[in-house]
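G., the chain you wanted modeled:
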Amino acid sequence: MNDFLGTPIEYLKGVGSKRAELLKKELFIATFEDLLYHFPFRYVDRTAYQKVADIQYWDTPVQLKGKITTLKIVGVGRKKRMSATFEDETGRIELIWFQGVDWVKKSVEPNRIYQIYGRAKKFGTGFNIAHPEVTAWEDVDKTGGMQGVYSSTEKLNDKGLHTKGISKIAVNLVEGLGGKIEEPLPKSIIDQYRLITLEEALIQIHRPDSEEQVRKAIFRLKFEELFFLQLELLHRKQISFEKGSGFVFPKLSKVFNTFYADHLPFDLTDAQKRVIKEIRKDVTSGKHMNRLLQGDVGSGKTFVALLAALMAIDNDFQAAIIAPTEILATQHYEGISEMLAPLGVKVGMLKGSVRKKQREVLHEQLRSGEMHLLIGTHALLENEVRFQNLGLVVIDEQHRFGVAQRAKMWRKNVVPPHVLIMTATPIPRTLAMTFYGDLDVSVIDELPPGRKPITTSHRYETNRIAVFKFMKQEIALGRQIYIVYPLIKESETLDLNNLMDGFEAISRSFPLPEYKVSIVHGQMKADAKQFEMDRFVKGETNIMVATTVIEVGVNVPNASVMIIENAERFGLSQLHQLRGRVGRGADKSYCILMSSYKISKEAKKRIETMVRTQDGFEIAEVDLEIRGPGDIMGTQQSGDLNLKLADLATDGVLVGIARDAARDLLRKDEKLQWAENGLTREKLNRILRSRPDWGKIS
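Predicted structure as C-alpha cells:
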C-alpha cells in the first residue's frame, strides 16, 4: 500500500478527528483506501425532480423542489420529533425527524427553497418522508447527474455523514487523486480486456460522468477482485505442486485387480472409469494429489474412493476414509469390510463410541501397519491416531469438515498423504473455480445403470389424508418410507410440525401390530440411533421418522418414499440430499414435499425446482442464485473472499475470464518477475500475507 492510500481518514477535507473516529467505529473506514473502497450500492439521478401530486407508491425514493412552510417540534423527551410541511405548486407532504431535532432546528429555515430527497411512505391519507436529505437550493450541485447512494448509520447521520455527506467526502477524495493510485494490473491485461485504469475506475464509481462510465468502473473493479482471487489460488496451487512431492503408487497388483475383476457389484460407468484414470495419473506422478471429487447423490463416489484406497494398499501404504457421521462411517465400514474380506485386507473402524480397550488395539494395529484401511469419523483427527505409513486420505462429504480439520490429516505423515475430497453436493462451475481453485476437480456426471428417476411432488397439509393412503399402498407392496422433520422439539417462534408430535401422529395413523415405526434424531445416544437405523435397514420397521440426521449417506434400497415435512424450511441442497436417500433399489421411488399454503417466494422457487429437475448441478445453480455463495459454502470452507462488488451468483462468466487472464499471466511469467508485473506481484504478496493458507502442508 502506498503512503497516500494509508493516510488516516481524519486528514481528508470535511472529516476531522471526531467524524474520523465515528467512521472507524461505524463503517470500519480508517484510511483513504477504506473510503475509496466503500462503494455506492446504487445511484440516483439528482437532475430529475418529481411533483408532490405525482407521489403514488409506498416506500418510493423521491426528489422534490419547493418550500418548507412550517417547522415545529412535537412531543417531549423520548417522543420529541421535528415536523415540517413541505410544498410545491402541486401539493403538500410532511417531513419528519425523530433524531437530530436540534440540528434541523438550527439548519432549516421556513419559506426558503430546498431540494428534498428521501423515501416517501404512506401515512394516513397522504405521504411523509422521514429523515430526508435537505439541501438549500443555492447549494445544490446542478451540474451533477448521477450520485452514489452509500450505506450509513444513524450515528453517522447525526453528524452529517448521511449518504449525501459520505458522497461529498468521497468526491473530495477522488478529486485529489491526480496520479496517486498505482496500477496493479499489467498493461497487457488492461489492453487485452479493454479496461479503464484503477484510478479512473475509483473516480467514476464515486463521481460518475455517466451511466456508461459507471458500468466501465464496476466491470474494471469486479475484474480486479476476481483476477487477484484467481491469481492467489493458482499461485498457492503452483507452490504446492513445486514443494509437495507425494508418494508414488507405481503398481496395480493382486488386491486392486482381483477386486476390480471379481468383486465389483456392478459395472462402473464411463464417468467413474474416467475419474479413476485421473486419480491413477495423480498417484503415479510423484506429486502430491489434492483432488476434489464431486458427484450427484448415488453416482458411485464411494466405489471410486475404495479403488483409490486399494491403489495405496497394493503399494504397501495405508488408507483412511473419514465420514461426517457415525451412521455413515458404520455403513461404509460394514459394506467395505465385507467386500474386502476375501482379499485379506484388514479394515478397522474408529468413531466416538469405540471403547478404550478397542481403541488401544486399533492404535497398535495402525502403528504396526497390520491395519490396511481405517474408516471412521472426526475421531481419526485425534493426535493419538498414528499410522505406520499413511498414503491416502479420503474425506467424504467435505462440506461437513472445516479446512483446519482436514489439515490435521495432511500432517499424519512426514510426507503428506494424497488427499481425495468428496462431495455429493454438486458445486456450480463458478464456485468450483473460486473456492477450489487450488484443487484438481473431477466430476462424476453419470448415474449407475438401473437407477430410476424419482417422482417428486408438492402437497399441502389439506392433502395429508391422500398422502397417508398412498403410504399404506406402498407399505402393502413391501416398501419402506422416510418422513423427515426440520425440528426435534416444538419451537415457540416457528409454526412448524415437530418430530415428536409427528411421531405420535404417525404412530396413531399407522398402529401396531400392522405397522412399525422407527425414530432417529441427533439428540439420541449413538447406540440407540444405530439400533433404530439397523431395525429400518433390516426391514423390521416400515416407517422411519427422522430429522436431517439421515441426510448424508444412509443407504436402504427398499425405501421407496421420502416425505419431507415443512419442505419450505429446507435449503435446496438439503432437499436434494434427502431425496437421494430413496431411488436406490429396483422399485419406483417418490419424494413428497409437504408445506403450508403460506410460503415465501424463495421457498416456492426451491420447491418448484425440486419438482422440475433431479439434475444436482442445475439445482446447485439455482441454490447459488437464491442464497449466494456465502450461505452455500460457509466461512469455514471459503475463507474471507473479501469481494466488495463481484457476485459469484451472477458474475460466473467474469470469474472464467479472470481465471483465464490469471492463468495466462502465470504461464508467461511464472514468478511474476517481469518489470511490468512488479506491482501485480506486490499486491499478490500482500494478499498472501493477509490470509491463512490452510492448504499449506507442514
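Residues 631-640, 694-698 have pLDDT under 50 and may be disordered.

Shout if anything looks off.
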